[in-house]
Amino acid sequence: MDRPLRIAVIGAGPAGIYAADHLIKAAETATVDIFDRLPTPYGLIRYGVAPDHPRIKEIINALHRVLDHPRIRFIGNVDYGVDVKQEELSRFYDATVVATGADKDRVLDIPGVDLPGSYGAADFASWYNGHPDVPREWPLTATTIAVLGAGNVAVDVARILAKTADELLVTEIPDNVYQELAKSPATDVHVFSRRGPAQVKFTPQELRELDVSPNVEVIVHPEGIEFDEGSLATMRATRHVKMCVDILQNWAVRDPRDRPRRLHLHFLQAPVSIAGDGKVESLRTETQELTGDGSVRGTGEFTDWDVQAVYRAIGYLSRPLADLPFDTTTGTIPHAAGRVLDLDGEHIPGMYVTGWIKRGPVGLIGHTKGDANETVTSLIADADTLPVAPQRDPEAVITYLEERLVRFTTWAGWQQLDVHEVSLGEPHSRKRVKVVPRDEMIDICNRIAS
C-alpha cells in the first residue's frame, strides 16, 4: 500500500465507531471521517436505549475515547444520499463503510394494526429519548396497554409506560417527555410473548430492572410458564436463559404486592388482530403450544383483551440507502464478509458494510465489535486494489459541505453540546437534560466549534 488510506464511515453509532477504531489500528496511516445524519454521535445509544439504563449507556465512555483519536473525525448533520452521495464521497475517500444501523419498526401484518393507538416501539423509543425528528407530543391516554414482543426493546417500552414520570425525572429525559408521562393514566401494561419463557430475548439484567420500581407490581401469569425438550435443552446450554427462567418462575408464585401500577407478563400468546371503532379498543391473541423443539403452533384458543393502546416491539428494520443494493426481505445490504455486492453478486469496489444493516438487527451492542473486525479485515486485504480518491486533502470534503451550505457539526461542537446538556441537568441533580430541537443542537455546536 503506497498511500495512506482515506476512509468514510456512514453512521456514528457503535457499529460505525467500532469500524473506525479497527481501521486506525489496522492501518497506521489511515484517517477516518464518520458521518451521521444526526448532529450528535452514538446512534441508538443516545436515541434507542431507555434513559433509565445508566449502566448500558456507560458504553458511551468507550466510544468517546475512540472519537477522540486524532485520525478520526466526526461530521454530523450530514444526510447520506441527500447532502452527499457516494459519487461525491469517492472524490474524497478510497473506501466507504456503511454502518447506518436499523431504526425503523418491523412490520406486523395483522388486521387493525394501522388503527390510531397502535404504535411502533422504535418510534416511541425515539420520542422518549428526545430524537429531533419525531413529534414533541405523544398521546398517552390509555389506562390499559399491550406491548407485543419478548426482547429488550419490549421490556424497555413496558417499563417506561409502567413507571411514574417522577421516577424517570432523575434520568436525562427531556422536559416535554416528562410532562407527557406525568399525564399518563396507565394502570396496567401487558407484555405478550408469542413463545415460551425459555425463548425470550431479553437479558437477566433487563428482566430484573422491571421489578425495581416501588410503584409497579410485576405479575407473571403462570399459565404460560411451559417447557418442552427444546426449551430444556436451551436452558441447559445457555446460562442467561436459565437465569431468566428462574426469575420468571419465582415471580409467578410469589405473593401479590399492593402497588398502584401493574406490569403483566404473558407467554405463549400470539397477536392475531387489533380491533376498535376508529381507535384501538381490544387486542386478540391466540394461545400457542410448544412443539418439542422450542417452536410454537396455534391452538385455536383465542382471548380478547380490553386495551386502548398497542405497542409493537417485534424488531427493528434498516432503511435502504440511495444507489446501494438492498435486500427488502432481510432488511440488509448484500455482502460477502462485509464487501458490498451488486445485483450480480460482484463486489462494488470501495464499498463495505457493518453492523445491523449488514447482519440484521440481532445481537447486543458488543456483538458489533466482531462484525466490524470482519469488515475491516476485508477492507485492509483489498487496500492495494481500492480506487484512489483524487482529492486527498482532508479539508476538501469540509469545503465541499460548506459550498453546499450544509450545517454540519463536528466532534468539538458535540463536546460543547455535551457540556451544555450536563449543565442543564446540574441544578436539578440530573446527569443531563437533552436538547431536542435539531436547529438548537446545531446552533450550540457551531457557536463554539466555529
Summed up, what is this model?
By secondary structure, the chain is of the alpha/beta class. It has helices at residues 14-26, 44-47, 54-57, 59-67, 86-92, 121-128, 152-162, 165-168, 175-182, 204-209, 229-237, 239-253, 356-359, 367-381, 394-403, 411-425, 438-449, and strands at residues 6-10, 31-35, 72-76, 95-98, 104-105, 118-120, 144-148, 188-193, 216-220, 261-267, 269-275, 282-290, 296-306, 309-312, 316-317, 335-336, 339-341, 347-353, 409-410.
Query: What is the fold-level CATH name, i.e. the topology of the largest domain?
Result: FAD/NAD(P)-binding domain
**Strand content range:** 15-25%
* Helical coverage, percent range: 25-40%
Under the CATH scheme, the architecture of the largest domain is 3-Layer(bba) Sandwich
Q: Please, could you describe this protein's structure?
A:
The radius of gyration is 23 Å and the shape is globular. It is 34% helix and 21% strand. It contains 17 helices and 19 strands. It has helices at 14-26, 44-47, 54-57, 59-67, 86-92, 121-128, 152-162, 165-168, 175-182, 204-209, 229-237, 239-253, 356-359, 367-381, 394-403, 411-425, 438-449; strands at 6-10, 31-35, 72-76, 95-98, 104-105, 118-120, 144-148, 188-193, 216-220, 261-267, 269-275, 282-290, 296-306, 309-312, 316-317, 335-336, 339-341, 347-353, 409-410. By secondary structure, the protein is α/β, with parallel strands linked by helices. The model has no long low-confidence stretch (mean pLDDT 94). The chain starts with 5 loop residues before the first strand and ends with a helix. The protein has 2 domains: 6-101 and 319-406, NAD(P)-binding Rossmann-like Domain (Rossmann fold, 3-Layer(aba) Sandwich), CATH 3.40.50; 104-316, FAD/NAD(P)-binding domain (3-Layer(bba) Sandwich).
